[in-house]
Amino acid sequence: xxxxSTAPAExxxxxxxxxxxxxxxxxxxxxxxxxxxxxPEATFFHRxxxxxVLEQGLGHRAPFLYAERDGELCGILPLGEIRSLxxxxxxISTPFxxxxxxxxxxxxxxxxxxxxxCRLAETAGVGHLELREREPHHPDWPGKALYATFRRxxxxxxxxxxxxxxxxxxxxxxxxxxxxxxxxxxxGVDALYRVYSESVRNxxxxxxxxxxxxxxxxxxxxxxxxxxxxxxxxxVSGVMSFRFRDEVxxxxxxxxxxxxxxxxNDFMYWEVMRRACVEGVRTFDFGRSKRGTGAFDxxxxxxxxxxxxxxxxxLVRANELPDVNxxxxxxxxxxxxxxxxxxxxxxxxxxxLARNLG
Length: 358
Description:
The protein has about 350 residues and is α+β, with helices and mostly antiparallel strands.
């Protein structure tokens, strides 16, 4: 396999001083996160805690690579290895996350990290290596234009943020308010799991293990918050959001059958925005969605413009790019059947599939 175009042709004096290693010790965890905090290209999904989440929450190997020069961290590359009989094997930066890829102080360090990732992919015998990046670092690699992310600055004044939502969508939020919906934070994940698992079952998608959400909460603490929406004391929707710097990222959200009529999901995302802005959060990250889906249109209806994501691939044993997503026609019958499963059964067998979707 050819090495990435970003890798240096010949090591020079500065390259020889760069050491590559794997994230292992508590001291390295602290150094890793300090690098993430200071680097402008880093995201929440580059944080060291994802190694523990992938390993303990989902049971995957997570060879997180870092580079150091003269004892100082100068680059990182979080990786997760997915091994699935149904969906194949892959090395991804970062699986179950919208952003990933190498973050480095210079192109030379990036190239060394990516060259090592290619070597690991070959050694592991995976089908492909995937880097989920916001910027197009690899225009010469095979890629996909399937996903877009939605990000926007928010105002310190909640009323101004409400007015910035287009009229029709703003009306949905106001309907939720008039319906008497209320929101509250929850320290646990069990209530969220009830509504989230029902929501993804209704979409025909397997749900993640409950353990995964518990590990997320345990690892990221206050930077992983759960907001629940209730109507007359009954739970109707919920969302897990991530905090990073001055950003909030509502990530895992869903609602019950009653949520649609009550406009509970509209109210829920508004509450995330409203609560965050008064706490000093200045960026609302609505996450990624696939083009041509209802979620993509929903976010545009909120006044967010799509920003293309650049997912780059290096094929190792695979002959073509992976296509594991609900838009693939070959999964149509599976999705239709999954929607009809009793909820307890979907909660039982769903995690066995979802942990391998990446």
